[in-house]
Each structure stands twice: as C-alpha cells, then as structure tokens.
Amino acid sequence: MTSIHETLKTYWGYDQFRPLQEDIIQSVMLGKDTLALMPTGGGKSICFQVPALAQEGICIVISPLIALMKDQVMNLKNRDIKAEALFSGMNKREIDRILDNCIYGNIKLLYVSPERLHTEIFQERLKKMKVNLIAIDEAHCISQWGYDFRPSYLQIAQIRQWINEDIPFLALTASATIRVREDIIEKLELKAANVFKKSFARANLSYSVFKEENKVQRLVNILQKVPGTGIVYVRSRKQTKDIANLLRRHRIRADYYHAGLTGKTRSIKQEQWMHNKTRVMVCTNAFGMGIDKPDVRVVVHIGLPESLEAYYQEAGRGGRDLKKSYAVLLYHEGDISQLQRMHEISFPPMDEVKKSYQAIANHYQLANGAGMGMSYPFDLGGICKTFNIHPTTFYHSLKMLEEAGYVSTNDAVFQLSKLRFIVNKEELYKFEVANKKLDPYIKAILRTYGGAAFDDYIEIRESKLAANYRVHVSHFVKVLHYLHQQNIIDYIPQSDVPKINFTRERVSIDSLVLDQEMIAFRKQVKKNNIDSVIAYAQNQIHCRSLQLIRYYGETDGKACEVCDLCLQRRKLGLEEKRFETIAQFIVDTLSETAENVLPLTDLITKESFPQKEVMEMIRWMSDQKMIEVDEERNIHKLI
DSSP string of 425-439? Predict the structure, then answer.
C-alpha cells in the first residue's frame, strides 16, 4: 500500500488535497461505504482514483456517459496510469483483451457503463478480478426523484454478488437533494454509509437573472463586458449555429456544438475551445460533461433549463479556478409557457410509445424474443422518416422506453481506429514471406507505431499510414480490412455514430408494458423540477445563491453579496434579513387584497417599518417591475 499523499504527488503533482477529498479517501480506504456530495469542479474523480492507485487491485468505476469515460481514461493514461473503459458497441475481441488485462495485467481503473455490468462475460470475469473499490459516478441517476433517472442504475447493487462483500462502494454526485441522497443510500444498499457533503455555495460565482425580450443583444453586451472564456447554453440545435454566427459578426470568437454533429467534429470543436482558439461555445446541454476547463469566466443560459439540478451543474462550469465568474440566466415570459408545453409533450400517449417501439424493432429486423444485449448504429431521423413518426414524439417515446428498461442509447463519441496484431512476431514474419505484396503495408504499421500493437490495441490514423507509404487512404484501409479477414490483425475502424442498445429481448406490442403509476410519478417529478426553475427565475427578493443551496437542503448559508439581488439590496443600504422582510411584507400585503391592488398610504401605515425604508423598497420593486404605482397612488402587484 502506498501513502495517499505520495500517490497524489506522484501522479498529479499536488502537495495537498482539496477540502473533503482526504476525508472521503480515508473512509473508503477503511472499507466504509461512502456517499460524497461535491459541487461541479470539486474534484470528485481524485476521490476514487487515488485510493485505486494506493492499494493493490483494481477500481471499477460505473459511469453513464461514454464521453466522460473516454476523457477520464485518456487523462489517466497521460499520467501513466493504467486505465480502460468498456461500453456498448465495442468489439468482442477488444472487450476480451481488456477484461483479461484487468485480471492478469496491471489495469488500475476500469470504467464501465451500468448496462455492461449485467452481461454474462463481465460478471464471470469480475469474479476473478482483485477489486479494491466500486465507484459509482453521477450516483443521482439511481433516484426516480432525480432529474436524470436511469433505470440501469437500479441494478448496480447486485454487483455485490460477484465480489468480496467487504469491498466498499463510493457513490459520487454533484447534485442531489435530501430525498435523492436518501434514495442513493437505499437503492445502492450502502451499509452504515459515511456521508461527506461539501457546501453547494460557490463564493466566487455571481448568479444573475434578467428578464429580457431581446436576449441575444443582452448576451452580446455581457460578452463584451466580461472578458475570458464563456459557455452559452441554448435550447435547440438551430440556435447554437444562429447565435454563434451572430456573435462572430460582433467580433466574438464563437463556435457551436450539439449532439447532431459527428463525434469527430465535436471533438475538434471541444479541443479548440479548451485551448482558447475559440472563446465562446454556444451549445445545447450535450456540451460540458467531463470537461475540466478551470478558467471559464461566464456561463449564460438563454432560456430556462428543465431543472435546477441541471442549471446548477451547467452554471457551475464557470470559475473552477476559484476566480470571480458569472452565471447569467436570460429569459422572457414565452420561455415559461414553452417549458410548460414541453413538459406535456414529454409524455406521449401509450399508442405512440408502442408505435415507436415497433418501428425500432422492425428497423433492426428483430424477431420476438431476440435482441437482448445487442447494439446498433442509431439513426433517429431515418427511423422517423421510414415509419412516419414525428421526431419529437419519437424522441420522448424513446425516453419513456429507456426509463422502462427496454432500450438505452449512447451519444455519438468519436473514437480513432484501433488495431492489434493477433499473431506473434514469428507468425507475422511467415505471413509476410508468403504475401510479399502486403509486406510493405505491415512494415509501415510497425515503423509508424512500433511493436506495441503485439501487446495491446493501439489507436491509429489511416491517413498517417497512407502518407508514410504514399498511397491513397482508401487503398490502405482495404489492406487493413484484408489483414483483419486473414486473422493477422484485429482492425476496428473509427466510429462516431450514436448507438441504440436493447437491454431486453423484443416483445410483442401487446406484451409491451409500461408502469402507468410510475409514468404519472415521473411526470409529477418533472413538473416539480420545472416549477422550481420558474420560481428561481421569478424570484426578485431572495439571494440567488441562498435559493440554490436551500434547494439542496442547506439551511444555514449566508447571502452571497455578489448576485444581482444582493447587489441591488446593498444599493438600498439594507441588511439581508430586513430587505427580505420588507419586500415580502409588501408582496404578502398586496396578495391579501382581492385584485392585488392597495392604496400607497394604506401600505405605509400597515406596519411599523420606517416610511423611508418602505418607500425605497417600493421604488426598487417598481424598477424591477414587481409592482406598479399608478397616477392615483395605488400599488398594483405585477408578478
């Protein structure tokens, strides 16, 4: 066993841990089940990576996002840490090789999707591994009360059947309400869990909300005033491109990003933004997960997100270097009604869900009882066109099928081509002698990438190989396919298409069952999420930061002093509690009247607040368009 501080210094170059990291690590090193609640950018990964390296054995990391797994494995390999990832759609030989390395080699961290846990091959190999820790990332996905529920997470606790029962579980999340935390502990069957919670307050992050008719112009103004890297979240793919183009016309270096782009294109755009060749990324919520860029100075949301959890995570990508940053939400009244309409559309009628399920199964020519565990390239648009289904209806039907456990989907992730020699050097030499025309191509591979491909899969670029041998790329690719067919190499061409995975065998339409009570429950949960977002946007009294941390169950926080409402309060010269008390008194008093109207004189004399303070508050509330004072000095409540 190696010292955790020595491990941290050796691989990350840090002399000390961030707050809570060492406590969490010590807990799992003592074999305790642990729940870690840390805000976005708080350093959750260190909490399982360090104990994985400091102890003998391998850590199994369960993660829902391929892009996140891919990025973390790449980052670990760059630190000379042996790590691998398994996810749906991978080549069987590659999976076999990785699992063998986890048993007989020196792999320290294996990232797996939750669906992978329940395949027979994984379960049998897992029993032979010396596991030192099970880490469950994005643990809130296990809760049906949460905003990002994934049914595959409900089966994670079963992994205890195949490992030493004393191996600790570490559940990690950046966003979990009290109810979701309780659900995580119950559903993962955490035993006497140690719970570590870092405050959800972000002292360096200034939250602001502006109700704007011309949101894009306000966005331009913000980006011209706040220097540095930025992220702009929008609701549609079309908006990403339109707004990025508009920003470029204002000489702001902007690009756009959404899930509809090829994986390769997204990878290039992300790299350019990470290295500051692009200043502002205009994107859907497909962008950001797993990206650790510390110097993001501003995160702007144009329109309302679907939950405060999603907003908190996305806004929290600003200021990870602990320097002053801004999180701005721009909305208008139409965004509220749009969000409410989308909630209704999100739960299609049962006949539409069945039609979508049948379309998917027929598209992949699956017979009843077949398909379980199979993965296919997923062309949503093509299926909709072939079977005449509206894309929005199909998308939400698919989400309902996912929550019911029939299918799962993976976003497109760009992966370079890979190859491995599946013959030894002596056998390869004999093949070269017998196939002299292929000898130069094999030598090109060996000269370009060395002998590493005899030991494991290596990532290759066909264009580089073709350039070295001075032939067209398509010709070299044909040679690689031929060598694959001859069982000389295992060649896996690059991939950047989304996948659909059948997590259960195909059933007949009559046998397709969705739990109507659960659907009604999930619909109510999502409605509550939307109501919380609207309340956050419309709040014009309480500190934004306090509103967010209270949502997560923190009751002892202090006003941030840097959000838009705290700054307004400070201009009035009122301390936090008095500001809130007077503002709430005015709102409540107006609400008591039949038409939310009250003579100004009645309001001033109703309570014992100093007239000057009440009048200043009225002026301020009028400026914020919370109230209006007419010519007859009657006060009208506007929100």
Answer: HHHHHHHHHH-TTTH
* pLDDT computed for residue 275 by the predictor: 94
Round to whole Å and give the CA distance between 621 and 600: 13
Amino acid at position 354, single letter: K
Statement to judge: residues 296 and 383 lie in one domain: no
Q: How far, CA to CA in Å, does 615 sit from each of 220, 612, 619?
A: 35, 5, 6
Domain that holds residue 508: 341-413+497-525
323: helix, strand or coil = coil
State the helix-helix crossing angle for 21-29 and 4-12, rounded to 10 degrees: 120
The alpha carbon of residue 537 and the mean position of all alpha carbons in its chain are separated, in whole angstroms, by: 22
- Listed in sequence order, the residues at least 6 apart from 312 whose beta carbon sits closer than 8 Å to its beta carbon are 39, 40, 174, 175, 200, 548
What pTM value is reported for the model?
0.81
User: What is the 8-class DSSP label of residue 623?
Assistant: H
Three state DSSP letters for 32-50: CCEEEECCCCCCCCHHHHH
Please indicate, yes or no, if residue 542 is contained in any of the structural domains: no
* Cα(439)–Cα(462) distance, integer angstroms: 17
Listed in sequence order, the DSSP H helices in 284-326 are: 308-315
Q: Name residue 283's beta-bridge partners.
A: 233, 257
DSSP E strands in 91-227: the ranges are 109-112, 131-136, 169-173, 194-197, 205-211
CB-based burial, 34-62: b 16+ in 10 Å, e otherwise: bbbbbbbbbbbbbbbbbbbbbbeebbbbb
Residue 259 vs residues 322, 368, 380, 416: alpha-carbon distances, Å: 30, 31, 12, 18
In whole angstroms, give the CA distance from residue 238 to residue 430: 56
pLDDT digits (tens, 9 = 90+) for 375-431: 888 888 889 999 999 999 999 999 999 888 898 887 656 677 889 999 999 999 999
Integer-rounded Cα Rg, in Å, for the chain is 28
Number of domains within the chain: 5
In angstroms, how far is the first alpha carbon of the chain from the final one?
61
Q: Is the pLDDT of residue 125 over 90?
A: yes
Instruction: Give a yes or no: residue 533 inside a domain.
Output: no
Instruction: Specify whether 35 is located in the same domain as 149.
Output: yes
Sign for the CA dihedral angle at 417, 423, 428, 434 comes to negative
Q: Of 626, 587, 631, which Cα lies nearest the Cα of 606? A: 587
Residue 84 phi/psi, 5-degree rounding, is: -145, 170
